[in-house]
Every structure is written in C-alpha cells, then in structure tokens.
Amino acid sequence: MVREIDPPSIQKEFLLAALAEGKRLDGRIPLEQRKIEFVFGEELGNVECRLGKTAVLAQVTASIVKPRDDRPYEGFLLINSEIGPMASSVYENGRSSDSEILITRLLEKSIRRTEAIDREALCILAGGKVWQLRLTLHFLSDSGNLLDCASLASMMALKHFRKPDVEVIGDEVIIHSPEERAPVPLAMHHTPLCLTFAYFENLSPILDPTHLESTLCSGTLTVTMNAQREICVLSKAGGTPLSVEEIMGVVRVGVDKVRDMVKIMDEALEKDRENRVVEVR
Amino acid sequence: MSSSRIEILNDGGLRHDARRPYELRSTSFQLDTHPTAEGSSTVTQGLTTVQVSVFGPREPKSRSTASHDKAIINVEVGVVPWAQGGGGKRIRGDKRLQEIGASIRQTFEPVIMTHLYPRSEIFINVQVLSADGGILPTAINATTLSLISAGISITDYVCSVSIGLHLTQPLLDLSYIEENDLPNLILASLTNSGKITLAQMETRLHLDRFQEMLELGTEACKVLKDEMDQVVKDNTGRLVERMNVRVGGGGGGMTIDQ
C-alpha cells in the first residue's frame, strides 16, 4: 500500500494548539459539521453528496431477479462500494486497505443490517420475481470523513429513487414504464445516518474530521443513528480509551445532529421534487 | 442464518443454556499453548475456543512497512473449517475476518508500548478453533494473555465481553444463538481505569438502554480481568518456583524474591 507522508510536526502543533482553544483550522466549532450539499442527477436515484471537499456519488438501480429459495418474499439490496484511486492516491484498485474495509463494512451494517429498506416490499411474485436494488457508490474525492458522506449519499439516493410500477395479474407481471404510470418510491423503515467523531488526547471530541484532522487524531468513533433516538451501529475500535460518560456525551450530541441532517435531506428532496417534472398520463 | 425459535429468557429467569442473565460462560485460560511463538494462549469461553500466538518483536517481513520510532502490529485471523457448522463457509480474506483483525489491531495499538520496540513488527495470529458466539471478545482476551506471555510491555489488561438486550433485561456473554436474536454490543475495556477502548454494536437499540449496557459491560470486564490475572500469577509463580529449585539447588548464587 502507498503510504502517505505524515504531516509536518509544526502543522500538528498548530492544529492541536488551535483545538485547545476550541478552534478548528477551517473556522468551525468542535461539534459542527461541514456544509452538506446535494446535487441531483438527471435520473431518479442519482445523487452526489458533498461534505466540504469530500464528495461521494450514489446511484441506485433496480432489476428483477428470482429470490432465494429459503426467503421467497424478500428482495435484495446490494451495495457496491469500492474505493478507487480517484478519491485519493492512497487507495489502490483491487486491493482493499484496512480503512477501506472498515468503511464498506460499516456502510453495509448501517444500511443493510438495520433494515433501512423494507425488503419484503420488494417482492413482486412470491418465489418467482423480486426487485434487486443495487446501490453503487463512487468515491469522488477524499477530504476526510468519507463514511459520513457516503451514508448521506446512500440514504439520499434510496429516498430519491423510484422503482417502476408493476401490476400482477395471476402469474403475469406487467412492468409499467415511467411514461405510462408514475414510478413508486421505496418503502423505508427509517433513515440511519453515520456521524464520525475524532478524538485528541486530553481534548474534547470534534465532529466530522477533515483529512488532516483524521490523520492526526488519536482515534475515531462512528455512531449510526436515526431520528427516532435509536443507535443503529456504534463502532469505536481502539484509539483513546473513553469513559462511559464520554461515549454517552457524543451519542447525545448525535441525536440532535441526525435530526438536523434528516431535515436538510427532506428539504433538499422537496426542492428537487418541485423542479422535477414527472409525466403521468 | 436461521431464525431460531428458542426462548431467550424463560419464566424462571434462565437463559437457553441455564445461565442467569449476568452469568458469564465457563472460562478457561491457558498460557503458552504454541510451540514456537514468543507468547501464546488458548482461551475458552463456553464453547468458543480461540488460540492466539504472538510472534515478535521481530524484524518486519517487509521493510517498507517498518516505522522508525515504533513497532508495527499486524494481525491475521483464521477460522478452522470445522469451527462452525456448515464447514468451510468462511474463507481467508473474508471481509468479516479482516474486520475482526483490524479491530484487534486498533484495540491493542494504544495499549502496547510500541515506542519500546522501534523498527520492529509484532505479529499476532488469531485462530478460531471452535465458534459459538463472541469470537471477537474471546480473541481480545486471548491476545491480552498472549502479549503478557510474550513479555511485551502493555499498559493495562484489555478485557472484552459481549452484552445483549432482551426486552429490557441486559444479558452478558452471548452464545451464537443469542447473538443472532438480540441486539448486542461488544465492549473491550482497560480494567484499571474502567475506560472503554472498543465498542461495537450492529443492531438497533434505543438510546436509553445503552448506558446501562455500557456500565454493566465494564463491570463484567473487571471480573474477567481478575480471572486472567490469577492465571498469569499462577503461571509466573510456578515458573519462579522451578527456577529456584534448579538455580538454588545447584548451589547457585541466584535468589528470587517471591
């Protein structure tokens, strides 16, 4: 694996000195996220999410496949999330580094294992035909905190996506093209979103670390939560040891942040809906 | 994955294997179970057995990965084909195993005093011999013991346990069946300070229950630490005794305070 050059120690000292005063290099306060921006593509289910200079493009597509024999009522959700050299030169094609595995595994856990998508609603004909959703993530640029950005992009793409309407008459399945009938949104249980906190020795945690901050920090904690005050995934591997109170502290901060993020998402979706013309005849 | 229809907690307040909610599974800790490794241990918790061997500090296999001021830690995780039903479902290079390896490495990086071993590598090999839930906690406990047995300096014992939640009742040290049915949290803590170094949770859980589970887990880790500490002290005591017999018996000039 290509190793990145460590940042100069003077930069490290400056960053830590600023943090000790509660300031960050990009002018944020410790528990403030970078500005979230969504860019919607031409198709439904194509969303680019930007978190500062970090950018992830998510694309949802659907196809019809045969379900598994032991689960005839369940559709599929596949997540493709390989981080290529486009994001940053430390990532190589074909070979996955530790950090890449952690990102893809956490994404998988927070979207698939928490049952964000109602997979039974993807069933068309029991044992015969189900929808297979494929969520493809393209990591466009890595300026720190790829995971949060990817989870935002994924959830937004899934919310934005519409699958073609189907009609079942006996054993026959008719798929209506979008021109014929308005496509239908996916059935979703909740909106899990990731929040990453970075820790520095003897300093209070910061939310949404930039690339420099995440290289210099002594550990990170990622918590996936939804607006219903539920923790879906929590992952803190190594780094500075924390007390129970410290962990509960960031989790409580997360509750409010996730609520704000869901609000931002809904507003962006609403805005997009107004501009988008969906033809129904 | 099969959705089991077992009763997690019966009317008498017992779990499916007749344990009480806060009862840990029977544990056994064995030190030095590998012939060539610098340190090794086999830890059994219930029906889960994990052997961890520590090699090093030694010269890194690839020089490019070495660090000039500290030791690097590499972890490899393997599961023997017969460890779990189904035979050979998990293969090398499996993402789940790689993730367990990464978790172990990140847990121990701040605990091992890596600055004492510059330009070297500490290689930790984890072999799961039989799996019945709680692979990661058992592997972490075994790694702590192996590092101690290898004589590598660590700042504190790292102990780990899994905690589940059935309705509102927290359960400790889950078996495979319980792990599949319950929201569960894996916790590793530094027992002297009571601080948490690893926390992993994969299933939905309401915020209000979370703190209770964290606190319970840290307590359980302390119990495990006492057990492990006893094993280490027994082992060392035995070693010291033998050294005394040989060195002292031969009229040597070496005395060891006990």
UniProtKB/TrEMBL annotation, chain A:
InterPro entries from the UniProt entry: ExoRNase_PH_dom1 (IPR001247), ExoRNase_PH_dom2 (IPR015847), ExoRNase_PH_dom2_sf (IPR036345), Exosome_comp_Rrp42_subfam (IPR050590), PNPase/RNase_PH_dom_sf (IPR027408), Ribosomal_Su5_D2-typ_SF (IPR020568), Rrp45 (IPR033100)
UniProt subcellular location: Cytoplasm; Nucleus, Nucleolus
Keyword line: Cytoplasm, Exosome, Nucleus, RNA-binding, rRNA processing
MF terms (GO), sorted A to Z: mRNA 3'-UTR AU-rich region binding
Gene3D superfamilies recorded: GHMP Kinase, N-terminal domain (3.30.230.70)
SUPFAM superfamilies: Ribonuclease PH domain 2-like, Ribosomal protein S5 domain 2-like
Domain spans labelled Exoribonuclease phosphorolytic: 32-164, 191-255
A Pfam family recorded for this sequence: RNase_PH
Keyword set includes Oxidoreductase: no
Keyword check for RNA-binding: yes
GO cellular component, one term: nucleolus
Record-level GO BP terms: exonucleolytic trimming to generate mature 3'-end of 5.8S rRNA from tricistronic rRNA transcript (SSU-rRNA, 5.8S rRNA, LSU-rRNA); nuclear mRNA surveillance; nuclear polyadenylation-dependent rRNA catabolic process; rRNA catabolic process; TRAMP-dependent tRNA surveillance pathway; U1 snRNA 3'-end processing; U4 snRNA 3'-end processing; U5 snRNA 3'-end processing
Family listed: Belongs to the RNase PH family.
Protein name per its UniProtKB record: Exosome complex component RRP45
TrEMBL record, chain B:
Lineage top rank: taxon: Eukaryota
Compartment annotation: Cytoplasm; Nucleus, Nucleolus
One term of GO molecular function: RNA binding
A GO BP entry: rRNA catabolic process
GO cellular component assignments: cytoplasmic exosome (RNase complex); nuclear exosome (RNase complex); nucleolus
Keywords: Cytoplasm, Exosome
Keyword Transmembrane among UniProt keywords: no
Domain Exoribonuclease phosphorolytic as annotated: residue spans: 23-152, 156-219
InterPro entries referenced in this protein's UniProt entry, alphabetically: ExoRNase_PH_dom1, ExoRNase_PH_dom2, ExoRNase_PH_dom2_sf, PNPase/RNase_PH_dom_sf, Ribosomal_Su5_D2-typ_SF, RNase_PH
Cytoplasm found in the keyword field: yes
Subunit structure, as described in the record: Component of the RNA exosome complex. Specifically part of the catalytically inactive RNA exosome core complex (Exo-9) which may associate with the catalytic subunits RRP6 and DIS3 in cytoplasmic- and nuclear-specific RNA exosome complex forms. Exo-9 is formed by a hexameric base ring of RNase PH domain-containing subunits and a cap ring consisting of CSL4, RRP4 and RRP40.
Assigned protein family: Belongs to the RNase PH family.
Record-given protein name: Ribosomal RNA-processing protein 41
Organism this protein belongs to: Kwoniella mangroviensis CBS 10435
